[in-house]
Design a protein that fits this description.
By secondary structure, the protein is an all-alpha fold. The protein is 68% helix and 0% strand. The chain has 13 helices and no strands. The protein has helices at 9-13, 29-35, 61-91, 103-130, 145-167, 171-175, 178-198, 206-219, 227-257, 262-294, 304-332, 337-360, 367-370. The termini are far apart. Mean pLDDT is 81; it is low at 1-63.
Length: 373
């Protein structure tokens, strides 16, 4: 199509017929490369690695993937939105607990906040798993840290506005409250983390992210009974959960880019799986301790907190089963395709766990039910 273009001088002057010499490479090869979607190389430049996303699939599976992936993400986002908005009301139905103003919106904002922490911490951890992989491709996923941190800062600021509207205070007066001050600290910490992520030393974001996690742990435990213990447990629990969820997301994105190098992809998933075992142990230990100190056994089924916790435990059981299945499949097969599919399902269920965890921070403290006459 391009060689016969009237605008090409070579096409008008070159001889034709059986005695014609072999066609030379056109001098406008960079323009031709751009027209078919491949970026041209500058003269004398060394060869560069092309990301796997730029390689089309000849059997049409690439087109199907490009269609199915956005549809799946849109469906998951819609389900998460519905869970966040209506979940607090559903778990509190019939419990007799006080209604929390704006519980659905608060849950949604906190879901985004937890997701932002997971994405950012995962991108700080997972590259340490990628680098030692032998024979790995030169491709690397794009960083989402800056966007995640800014989104987290925005929803923290949104919680300040919501708190001011519910309490009838001005923004300045809201800053002076305990929750308002902690939310302001969280928002500023995430803005600073975004700046670190955009710099040449993204690892510096660890410091402001640690402040954010500490402030969130204090904010989530306003109870008068041993709040320091609850905050310490939450610091470990939230850090481990963020590393697990965000690390798995980064690993899955990298494995998709490395789908043409199954040995390297399998090695990366194996390295993550070994780390995930310790993260799981930390989650189980801190989650059990937090439950024993916060949830009286006689209100497990009659409080919103207890019901939400049961849902979270059920989801974590599914996550555990998928993680074990992916690890077994990875040990048996050299092709990581099935293990990758199981890990994607694990990631999807972990997304639901994040929403349920946000609901847990919104529903009332269950102690007051057990103390009712």
């Amino acid at each position: 199509m391009f060689s016969g273009s009237p605008a090409d001088p070579a096409a008008r002057t070159a001889p034709t017929g059986p005695d014609a010499p072999p066609a030379a490479v056109p001098s406008d090869a960079p323009t031709l490369a751009l027209s078919i979607g491949v970026p041209p190389l500058p003269t004398g430049a060394p060869p560069v690695a092309v990301t796997a996303d730029a390689v089309p699939s000849g059997d049409g599976s690439g087109s199907r993937s490009r269609f199915l992936l956005p549809a799946s993400l849109a469906t998951a986002a819609l389900l998460a939105l519905l869970m966040a908005l209506f979940g607090p009301g559903l778990v509190a139905r019939g419990t007799g607990e006080l209604r929390i103003p704006g519980a659905g919106l608060t849950t949604l904002l906190r879901t985004v906040l937890f997701t932002a922490l997971a994405v950012h911490l995962g991108e700080l951890l997972a590259p340490q798993l990628v680098r030692p992989v032998r024979g790995r491709p030169r491709t690397a996923v794009r960083s989402w840290s800056v966007y995640a941190a800014l989104a987290g800062a925005a929803v923290a600021a949104g919680q300040i506005v919501q708190l001011a509207a519910v309490s009838g205070l001005g923004i300045t007066e809201t800053y002076a409250t305990r929750d308002g001050g902690l939310l302001l600290l969280i928002a500023n910490g995430l803005v600073l983390a975004a700046g670190c992520a955009a710099s040449k030393r993204p690892a510096l974001a660890l410091a402001p992210l640690a402040v954010v996690i500490g402030a969130e742990a204090i904010r989530a435990h306003p109870e008068a009974y041993s709040p320091e213990i609850g905050a310490a447990l939450t610091v470990v629990h939230l850090t481990a959960a963020s590393l697990w969820t965000g690390g798995l997301l980064y690993v899955l994105r990298t494995m998709w880019l490395w789908r043409g190098s199954p040995v390297a992809a399998r090695a990366l998933l194996g390295r993550y799986a070994r780390l995930a075992i310790w993260l799981y142990v930390a989650l189980a230990a801190t989650g059990t301790a937090s439950t024993l100190r916060r949830l009286p056994l006689d209100v497990v089924f009659t409080s919103a907190y207890g019901r939400t916790l049961l849902v979270k435990l059920a989801l974590m059981t599914v996550v555990s089963a998928l993680a074990v299945a992916a690890r077994r499949r990875m040990l048996r097969d050299t092709d990581p395709a099935l293990a990758h599919r199981l890990a994607r399902r694990e990631q999807a269920v972990l997304g639901a766990v994040v929403v349920v965890s946000a609901i847990l921070t919104v529903v009332p403290d269950p102690h007051w039910i057990s103390m009712r006459p």
